[in-house]
Amino acid sequence: MIIGVPKEIKNNENRVALTPAGVAEIKKHGHTVYMQANAGTGSGFSDADYTSAGATILPTIEAVYETAEMIIKVKEPIAQEYNLIREDQLLFTYFHFASSEELTHAMIARKAVCLAYETVEKADRSLPLLIPMSEVAGRMSIQEGAHYLEKPLKGRGILLGGVPGVPPARVLVLGGGVVGTQAAKMAAGLGAHVTIMDVSLARLRYLDDIMPPNVDTMMSNEYNIRERIKVSDLIIGAVLIPGAKAPHLITRDMLKIMRPGTVLVDVAVDQGGCIETCKPTTHENPTFIIDDVVHYCVANMPGAVPYTSTLALTNATLPYAIQLANKGWKKACQENRDLLSGLNVVKGEVVYKGVADAWGLSYTNVDDYLEMATV
Ligand SMILES: NC(=O)c1ccc[n+]([C@@H]2O[C@H](COP(=O)([O-])OP(=O)(O)OC[C@H]3O[C@@H](n4cnc5c(N)ncnc54)[C@H](O)[C@@H]3O)[C@@H](O)[C@H]2O)c1
């Protein structure tokens, strides 16, 4: 198969969908890879790195879309890319259709095959192509939180790990899923005293077993949250209710019972945030202050560490990309239900219920669609 990797053109997006190692792996399976010039520069990979791995460099984005049967990307196509997409072309990337009606209609009109990273789902309901970014954001939340706890950045002026004779900072992690677990591990590793709250007792049992002694677990409820935020220096918002807006576990009035200089990092801000006063911010201007409490609410945290994020993402996407290249999208999806659940829009038809529901569109069940398509 002929595979094309365009350079990401969305503002501030430095990730790339294939690393030189990924190119070498795909080449081993007998496929051809075209990279757009400078596609990997933002992640630290040069065109020479790609050519020595076996890719051919094309000068323009137009040439990549024109040549490739499968396009592998990171972010959803933006308006200037819509007309480059060809009928029957396979696009494997993040789409987040339910948050853009314009993109949904554009992809229906282009009649491409849109396989979305974010809905590829394993039998245990985990989302293997979202997990790596949650891992990055979870670990990063402590790094950022520690930074903003410094006095010149309006924090409490407390060192996470303390020093001999001075107690460490207290970190509260709301939600003990992927983000929360990675955050707790990082904070504990730096010597902080960590509390993880979750509504799942099974999850708390698991975390209690695997975490080091400076991490304790607590049931998440309003009473416990009110008690804990009074003494916490850094609070990480990491809750997720699949398919719904995040619940506001910390409300506006609760800021008053926190100590001045407390830092809130609401990682869940991309789902509306679990702290009422959080509004999405950017890496250029990541924080704002309300009632002397520092709010960090960057909606695309992994974007600040494109090298790590690219490697983490491609480690997870590459095995699926190889299946798609080896078998073609139809056979690959028929033989692997993880990939099947990634199909969102196929040749003008919406085959993912969440997307159809979001925009009031007609919907064809994906199994029925494939059956019809193979006849
Ligand atoms: N800002 C960013 O750059 C960025 C990057 C990656 C992920 N995220 C977001 O981070 C959030 C967490 O993602 P995840 O992968 O860890 O999800 P996850 O599903 O692995 O974990 C969510 C956890 O929240 C718990 N939870 C639900 N309701 C709760 C409540 N009321 N109190 C306490 N815990 C509760 C669940 O039991 C679960 O353990 C998501 O909104 C995700 O989109 C943001």
From TrEMBL:
Residue sites binding NAD(+) per the record: 134, 198, 203, 220, 239-240, 267-270, 298-301
Gene Ontology cellular-component annotations: plasma membrane
Enzyme Commission (EC) number: 1.4.1.1
Biological process according to GO: L-alanine catabolic process
KW Nucleotide-binding (keyword) present: yes
SUPFAM superfamilies assigned to the protein according to its UniProt record, in alphabetical order: Formate/glycerate dehydrogenase catalytic domain-like, NAD(P)-binding Rossmann-fold domains
Species this chain originates from: Rhodocytophaga rosea
Gene: ald
This protein's name: Alanine dehydrogenase
Catalytic reactions on record: L-alanine + NAD(+) + H2O = pyruvate + NH4(+) + NADH + H(+)
Residue numbers annotated as active site: 96 (proton donor/acceptor), 270 (proton donor/acceptor)
High-level lineage: Bacteria, Pseudomonadati, Bacteroidota, Cytophagia, Cytophagales
